[in-house]
Records
---
Amino acid sequence: MPFTRAAALRQNLTAFAAACIASAALQLHPSPLAAHGYEAGELKVRHPWTRVPAAGEKSAGAYMEIRNGGKETERLIGAYSPAAERVELYKVTSTGESVKTQQASSLQISARRRLFLRPEGSHLLLIGVRSRLRMGDRVPLTLQFERGGKFQIELEVQPSDSRKPQH
């Protein structure tokens, strides 16, 4: 069968369509950036981690940096992990000399800004951890954003005395 111009055009269009579909799929599902970050649309999550809980402890903080590269404010409105009974959001505020930690219904990430979730700062709390977390484990976590939808990441478990990500 002779190779015609129409056949060449069909082949090029098919390849282009496949590339467009693959690109769109990457926009909908977060992709890992190396081993320490995830990206979907205008959102990036960098260095997600948790610590080995103390013996007998059934909760663990979750820490990370969330970058909002968009032109509108985003809100983290919830989180879920199969490794815990529930995940709660906590916001730390300071007024003068007092520091207050309180459960929050959402955490705001202003347009083109970052939200840092850290020990002794705003953070997520995995409550009712179902099995022992060991150093080096990876804990699945789904973040729920108001505009950006669900965002699946993994927390790297670090030593119990960690103060910052080590990856």
Note: The radius of gyration is 20 Å.
---
Amino acid sequence: MKCSRCNRVLTDPVSIQRRIGPVCLRKERGAVLYLQSQPSEEQMDIFKTRSAWHHQILIEDFGLVVCIWDDYSEAEPTMSVTNDAENVVKAIMNHEQRNGVDLSTAYWIYVDTEGVWDRLLPVSPDVVMFESLAGDSCQAAIETLRKKVTAEFTGEVE
């Protein structure tokens, strides 16, 4: 199989599955690395994830961004991502690591059950802190995050 962008031969199984090589994937700003509709049964069992969610990984100009949607439903109530953040982060990191994606330096954002986008800050395997982004959409949260990251990088105070 060949890369859909540069037409080079793909040898890595993950690249073959995605139909694009890692260099071309990085060049495509905003490209989706992986989209998962919901946690797999394996994730639910191994990490005892008690919330329902799905995620997407985007390549932005400042780094990888993991976007998590809370799929809470009154019809099938579960714990919210907010209350299960540590387990959700562990499940996504483990799943993506098996697919060859390193999320150790990624930025994490999520939309809560009230529709507000905020930042998750994994500080250790068992501790996740939160930072308000007050975004009303994924793109708005990414733009706020971009400004924060740029300010942190340049040493500017917002």
Note: The longest strand covers residues 127-135.
---
Amino acid sequence: MHLLTFVTLLGLTWLPGDSGQGLVTKRGRCQQELPLSLRIQSPRTVRRGEPVPIDLVLTNEGRHEVIASLDRSLADSQPAFALIITRLGGAPVWRRPPDPGLPVTKDVHGSRPRAAASGVQVDVRLGPGASYRLRERWRQEDVNGRRVSAGTYVIQGSILVADRLLLAEARAIRIY
């Protein structure tokens, strides 16, 4: 349910991929699919108040080198990607970027993204089995900057690759 809400917020169309992951396009049609997968890496449990490292890992699952074209804000050091954190069975608590329709830049303080007006495209070469890692730190704050309570949260992530949105399988995290 939340995955479809997430995609709807981006104004894109969700299409199921063969691998069980979703493939989304702005035009609502599939282009030639690159052999890429996207997964979320984060701790399963963290103490309340500790920053949560979250990595989105883009991997070439094919047998040949691929070039992944990624959007990047001129003011950010890494390509634009989206993360949404929700309470288990609840509404979104935090997101990167705060407005899912805009490119993103990161504040030097960690998980306080802001929107940028312009961007560029970056080509990332990935050999067979190679990965590209995108990093974020969630400070366990909601969209209003308030500390979240202990409990179980779900992380969802995505990245645009050549005008297609790859969705990572959601990952649960428990704050104690």
Note: The domain at 2-175 is CATH 2.60.40.2360 (Immunoglobulin-like).
---
Amino acid sequence: MELVKNAKQSDSRLAKKLGCAQSTVFRIRKQLEKDNVIWGYSTIVDWTKLGYSMYVITIRTKPPTKEGTGLVVKGIIAENAKKFGVSLLDIMMLFGEFEWCLLVAAPKEQNVHNYINFLRERYHKFIEGRPLHAKVMFNCVQQGQKNPTLDDLEKLGLETTSSK
């Protein structure tokens, strides 16, 4: 979990925290990368400070087929949402009312509408109904990290645990 808290820390610093040799940390990290336990390392971005809003898109699909699932996943990724001004942050396959959940960032809601319309037109054989979307009003925790401006929720008139 130390690595999740700060992926930038060196193996030697992590070894000190864990009380083991730097070579042990290096070996374990490399094995976790090889086994795809660690997919990669990323930066946590406050999209609002870059002029973007975040949106959640939920998609219901028709009864799944191997072809349909593969096409939709590859299509969502390969069609590169960026041509619609949308940054694709996460894609999750769900079990429940919806089969897919996408987390995206875009400068305008119209970009998200255009992207959704493209997905509907391109994958009409597999998508049931109109995908739904909602704007994220405030991101409290991202990739396990508490938002450093969590107290700003008070400005929105919402109560946080830390403000009680």
Note: The longest helix spans residues 109-122.
